[in-house]
Amino acid sequence: MGASPGGTAPAVPLRWPKLSPLAHARVDNETVIVDCAVYRNGARLSGQPETLEMDAAVAAADNDGDFVWIGLHDPTREELADVARAFGLHRLAVEDAGKARQRPKLERYDDGFFLVLRTLWYVKDTDAVETGEIHLFVGPRYVVSVRHGQGVGLGDTRRDLEERASVLDHGPAAVAYAVCDRVVDDYEAVAGELEDDVDLVEQAVFSEARFHDAERIYSLKRELLEFRRAVSPLREPTSRLAAGRVPGVPAAAVPFFRDVHDHVVRVSEQVEALDLLLGGIYEAHLTRVSIRQNDDIRRISSWVAIAAVPTMVAGIYGMNFEHMPELTWRYGYLVVMVVMAGACLLMYRSFKRSGWL
């Protein structure tokens, strides 16, 4: 399949702009360009080194239907500007790609589009969701992927796509699909981990043991919020891709994006359900705390009432009056002690029967 809009070859052959010496000097750095390759007829051109220099890749992509995929990791503004000049990227899109913390979105520019994805991965040691970003410039004869952060790399995605010639034959749109599919698959894995965490918190809230549930619930709320920031805005871009309303996406590639959109909707609904469930768990936690406090207050009140009886009797007999009943009686002390113990026992049994103790 051709990579031009509508799946047909352009009437006028595209020509690559000339690269500046600065682009050669600054961009060809292995820490910036993760991989750079030319693809023809659904396969990576053979006989090339693992990673081409950018000018060599542009020179090799001289047939109709060829395209270049260059992957960058945390480029500087100057390095990204050199790549932008080489491929004619739109200035506003390049400005967004140079900044991290972008909202997931899809924007059309001329005969291509610019796609922002938020990557997520789960850190078991801290039970936290970490985020990164992938920015994709997709044109008729190029794909430029810009990755920010230390998160999920695209090396495995590239190798998997290169083994599926029938998919890769759709051109640059196939790369956009493969990257979206990888990112959304990671969403599903993270959602599964968060679901396990929510289940554990739910069990802790309804157990008899006392934990720091409020702190854990708040932490999970923050992780779910971060998740929703990545997933919810992506529903609209994937919907447009699935409907074939984006230039550069041939009709034969639309079903692939429909599958991605379906997964995005499913994960988004799963996250919303987890957020609602966690809100219910927090309300249940507050109710349990209130019930426990009431139980504690009743227990304390019961013991105070029991202790008040001997305190009152001892206080009366400790007033040192001369004319008091049973002061000179031989068994007076013993009788008073028995009366106090009996009164305390009766009150204890009464509170126990009523459930206060």
Structure description:
The chain is α+β, with helices and mostly antiparallel strands and 357 residues long. Helices cover 54% and strands 15% of the residues. The chain contains eleven helices and seven strands. The protein has helices at residues 21-27, 54-60, 77-87, 91-97, 155-162, 165-168, 172-205, 213-231, 235-242, 254-317, 332-354, and strands at 33-40, 43-44, 67-73, 105-109, 112-123, 128-138, 142-148. Strand 4 and strand 5 (112-123) form a beta hairpin. Helix 1 (21-27) packs across helix 3 (77-87) and helix 10 packs antiparallel against helix 11 (332-354). The longest helix has 64 residues, at 254-317. It is rod-shaped and about 120 Å long.
Helicity, as a percent range: 40-55%
Number of strands: 7
* Separation of the first and last Cα atoms: 78 Å
What composes the largest sheet? 7 strands, mixed
Which sequence of SSEs, written as H and E, runs from N to C?
HEEHEHHEEEEHHHHHHH
Provide the structure class. Answer: alpha+beta
- Mean pLDDT metric: 82
Total helical elements: 11
